[in-house]
Amino acid sequence: MKPPRRGELPGDDAIDRADAELLSGVDAEMADAVERCGPLFGCGPGRTDCCRGLFPVNLLDARRLQRGLLDLEAREPARADAVVRRAAEAVARLSGEYPGDPATGLLGGDREAEEGFCGRHAAEPCPALDPTSGRCELYEWRPLVCRTMGPPARIGGVELPPCPFCFAEATPAEIERCRAAPDPAGHEAALVEELQRRLHLHGETIIAFALAGRPAAI
Q1: pTM of the predicted model, to two decimals?
Q2: Which residue, 62, 69, 76, 78, has fewest beta-carbon neighbours within 10 Å?
Q3: Is 48 exposed, middle or buried (0-12, 13-18, 19+ CB in 10 A)?
Q4: Can you give the residue ranges of every domain in the chain?
């Protein structure tokens, strides 16, 4: 992958500007929730429990990760190369039983098969995780599922549980006091639909395939 000139990210357009606005709102809401959590919230750099395991990400997340990788490559190519290498190694490990098309990275949409696949690889580290520092190399570009990890959240009308490590001793009332609503208007879903129409692609992938450039040029 040839690095672009610093500060120059291909595909910087209305979708990316709208995504940046979405992330600003999500991050502000999650920061407010963390403040309400107080000592219940114990996550920080080096706490990598939630950086292991596989889960689907949408094409907007994949696009953002690929843009973040370009940004990292322009600034620190050695670190970006390490992310790409870890992603390629993960793709090689996972392709044989991937519940989708490993050539494109798109999952097949069979939720039962995908859940079984993710469950069998619950210890798989995220390629963006630096195994030495315990930090995410693409933290500012991470998917929404990563950005909303920790406090309990309400997303798409579904109430998601909090981190079991941080909130193991919390009462139901304490959990509800900390609940966040990071995207109440559903802006993410609208952006994903728009991106899918543009690309003539539909579906989800996982982080390793996105960082290996599959689907390509999204």
Answers
A1: 0.91
A2: 78
A3: middle
A4: 19-36+43-211
